[in-house]
Amino acid sequence: MSIVRLGTRGSPLAQTQAALAATALTARGAEVELIVVSTRGDAAQSTPLGELGPGAFASALEEALLAGEIDVAVHSSKDLTGDQPEGLELAAFLERADPRDAWCGHARSFGDIPVGARVGTSSLRRSAALRAARPDLTMVPIRGNVQTRLDHRTASELDGVVLAACGLDRLGLDAEIGFRFPVEILVPESGQGAIALQTRLGDGGLVVGADHLDTRTAVMAERGVTRRLGGGCRVPVAAHAHHTGQAWRLIGWVASPDGIRTIRHEATGANPHALVDEIVDLLLQDGGAQLLAEGGA
């Protein structure tokens, strides 16, 4: 049996996620090899995320895949913001971890965060949502891997930093979490918590046995919302789908970068894909189109 070459970024979290992918594939009889690929986002640690543009953490992996240097690219689904490059496909999604954002600091609820607190985050989405809910908070931009951003809390005298809960859980750093934000306060990034396995067209059989249907259903619906809205780098957008036990719930959100204007709509139904157009149309009609136009999306 030939070895399946898994391409991954070099950060501790990325390699942990690649190891999860490797475990899923070896459990199905594959032999795997991990190959580290350097990305633009990893190399430019001092550049604000909004200035890096789309594909900062994914394009190098996709190029290696197209060049035949790797067989499978392992991505955080939230890093895949646009359409699939020609010749590639999202062949599998591992079962999703907690998609919520987490507060790392002493506060144990959103209301416990001190008035005027300094909050570390490099995310336009998180900054806008937090400013919308708590205009008293001061956002401090931070970059780096998970541990580096946690260290900023002390080094930069912050009251807390906001990170994806799934990354902290996967790295065994869940003790750093003061609380996890309800999706009503912070709508998660499209795809957050899910690991995507990308292959060349026709090679999906390498990973298809690892595909988790509910995760695929949720992530593809979320991508449907954010791809239609655009935004991302200049205008924060977000979408989140989850099954309530009786139906699918799909949330869409768009805001001005300063958080002064936010628009949020949700719908429920048997199939989240059937809700995408409804949610996007409501957001656009309710002022989202103007926000996106102002941001040049």
What does this entry show, briefly?
This protein is α/β, with parallel strands linked by helices and 297 residues long.
Shape: globular
Give the total of beta strands: 13
> What is the ordering of alpha helices and beta strands?
EHEHHHEEEEHEHEHEEHEEEH
Q: Level of helix content?
A: 25-40%
The gyration radius over C-alpha positions equals 19 Å
Percent of residues in β-strands: 15-25%
Question: How are the strands of the biggest sheet laid out side by side?
Answer: 2-1-3-10-4
Q: Could you name the CATH homologous superfamily of the largest domain? A: Periplasmic binding protein-like II
Largest sheet, strands/sense/barrel = 5 strands, mixed
Structural class: alpha/beta
Distance between the ends? 47 Å
List keywords for this structure.
297 residues, alpha/beta, D-Maltodextrin-Binding Protein, domain 2, Double Stranded RNA Binding Domain, 3 domains, five-stranded mixed β-sheet, 9 helices, globular
Folded structure, characterized:
This protein has about 300 residues and is an alpha/beta fold. The protein has 3 domains: about 110 residues, D-Maltodextrin-Binding Protein, domain 2 (3-Layer(aba) Sandwich); about 80 residues, D-Maltodextrin-Binding Protein, domain 2; about 70 residues, Porphobilinogen deaminase, C-terminal domain (Double Stranded RNA Binding Domain). Helix content is about 30%, strand content about 25%. A 5-stranded mixed sheet has the order 2-1-3-10-4, sandwiched between helices. Strands 7-6-8-5-9 form a 5-stranded mixed sheet, with helices on both faces. Helix 5 links the parallel strand 6 and strand 7. The longest helix has 19 residues. It starts with a strand and ends with a helix. The mean pLDDT is about 90.
